[in-house]
Design brief:
By secondary structure, the protein is an alpha+beta fold. It is built from three helices and six strands; from the N terminus they run ββββααββα. The protein is 22% helix and 25% strand. The strands form two sheets. A four-stranded antiparallel β-sheet has the order 2-3-5-6. A two-stranded antiparallel ribbon has the order 1-4. The longest helix has 16 residues. The radius of gyration is 17 Å and the shape is flat. The model has no long low-confidence stretch (mean pLDDT 89).
């Protein structure tokens, strides 16, 4: 039989395949789980798009809706997708500004994975006639990925999107 074995990280997963999934209604970084990257010799991107991200305004407690884009180049670990889904769901009643949400997500994933590179972009639905689309990134210090992060940050908005894309 080919494929990933229990010795390659599957035995440590508690959420994938669990039929009794518990959804946290409070911010819950502890639900994030990772498995070994079986291809650490190669640089490659892993991308997640979460079109149903919600959080709350910290002052008015009105809901904010976004598509959250997460892209990273793994090092030794990759995030397990069901745990990421449950983690993002945990923001549902979390009160923070858009800029805080994307930075918190990035920081939690850095802590979990220690990736070579990561970027998080929140494309929030306009509220009050304005949209806020924060983007942040990180490259592992002392590596080419630190330089990549600087380059991508400096060139992030060279080609702004059209207003009619929402």
């Amino acid at each position: 039989m080919s494929g990933r074995t229990h010795e390659e990280g599957l035995k440590d997963l508690t959420l994938l395949g669990n039929q009794n999934t518990q959804y946290s209604f409070e911010y819950a970084p502890e639900v994030l789980e990772a498995v070994d990257n079986l291809h650490p010799e190669r640089d490659y991107f892993v991308k997640f798009n979460c079109p149903e991200f919600t959080s709350l305004c910290p002052l008015t407690h009105q809901p904010d809706f976004a598509t959250m884009y997460i892209s990273y180049i793994p090092d030794k670990k990759i995030v397990e997708s069901k745990s990421l889904k449950l983690y993002l769901f945990s923001f549902r009643n979390h009160g923070d500004f858009h800029e805080d949400c994307v930075n918190i997500i990035m920081n939690d994933l850095i802590k979990l994975l220690d990736p070579r590179y990561i970027e998080v972009w929140g494309k929030f639905t306009p509220r009050g006639g304005i949209s806020i689309d924060p983007w942040c990134n990180y490259g592992k210090p002392g590596t080419k990925f630190e330089e990549m992060a600087t380059f991508r940050l400096m060139n992030h908005d060279l080609y702004p999107e059209k207003v009619d894309n929402r």
